[in-house]
Amino acid sequence: MGNYYQPEIETASREQIHQWQSERLINQVKHVWENVPFYKNKMIEAGITPDDIKSVDDLHKLPFITKDDLKDQYPYGLLGKPLSECVRIQSTSGTTGKRVVAFYTQHDIDIWEECCARAIVAAGGTKDDVCHVSYGYGLFTGGAGLNGGSHKVGCLTLPMSSGNTERQIQFMTDLGSTILCCTPSYAAYLGETIQEKGLKDKIKLKAGIFGAEAWTEEMRHDIEEKLGIKAYDIYGLTEISGPGVSFECSEQTGMHVNEDHFIVETINPKTGEVLPIGEKGELVFTCITKEAFPLIRYRTRDIGILSLEPCSCGRTHVKMTKPLGRSDDMLIVKGVNVFPSQIETVLMNKGYPANYQIIVDRVNNSDTIEVQVEMTAEMFSDSVGDISAKEKELVDALKAMLGIYAKVKLVSPKTIARSEGKAVRIIDNRNLYKG
Ligand SMILES: [Zn+2]
Questions:
Q1: What dihedral do alpha carbons 156, 159, 164, 169 form, nearest 10°?
Q2: What is the CA(288)–ligand 1 centre distance, in A?
């Protein structure tokens, strides 16, 4: 049995969770019908009124909302409370089109921070811990969410934000950080730097909570080894609140969704049909307690699988796999779906560091893909012939994984720009104007 932040909620019976979800969904649908004209119109179009929603079993009657709806309604179209009752906005880091701007009441912030507190406690956090938050602060939800969760648990919170790696490591050693929160790519980079400086013995870290970008099991093992910690996954998105929508427990076989606040469904992304638990589909979330930005049946584009198998941690909330792919990140190269996570798996299996970049281009109306991979210092001293042989080996392994030819270029250590926030893995030049 594990540690819980809110044991009576986290280990509630399935009947109790069903009851909470039903009551809260009914109230939420009334709330949006009365306060968000966008939802009222959508429900009228779908031929339903709040009276049609009598329990969580009626959820499927409600229409979906998509990222396009959020763009169309930017900035105030989905607001559920007067601005005078809102206390915060957070925003996505999207660079194309309009950003998503999400609003929060104080109640929304409290719930979000409680969700993050559950994740920290599940990772072993207590008031005796020093929680080192190296997610970006500001509009990005990572810093704010884990910072708030850390306060709720009572940890000594270090609001480091991202960047300035020297200072990060100095605080980590001088102040004895025990829990690290950041993106997995930055955790890998910190681990690499700490190893190079020979400081591993001076680090007191025991656990890390990593999210906001896709990472593989191979990368988890790499980070765990380099930092000497247990690495926990956390999932969330700004549209739904931020990190803490779901989080990993000690069993590390999926992330428990905070079902007292969010209802999760998986759907067939083509037909919208709701899939049974256990089938792979697009994750759809409904916020049942959020006031200011209450998204209902929001299509995430993340592909995942849900599970209600009993968990050894004692939590009863449904688990989701880490996103198995994200249609936003998915590249279509030569007509084939390519996920960066597939390429990463190949690289990690072959012993390469997680520093790579995928460059896609179009030459003579045909797609090309090149994967630039950093060598380790050891490989760098190999002969040119050895390096060519290594490239050939990676080309073959990538072809087996992706089904297409990808050029591989091994580059010198430290030549690919290091990420201090979200890693830039893909450079797609196909849409650039070529004069
Ligand atoms: Zn569990």
A1: 10
A2: 22
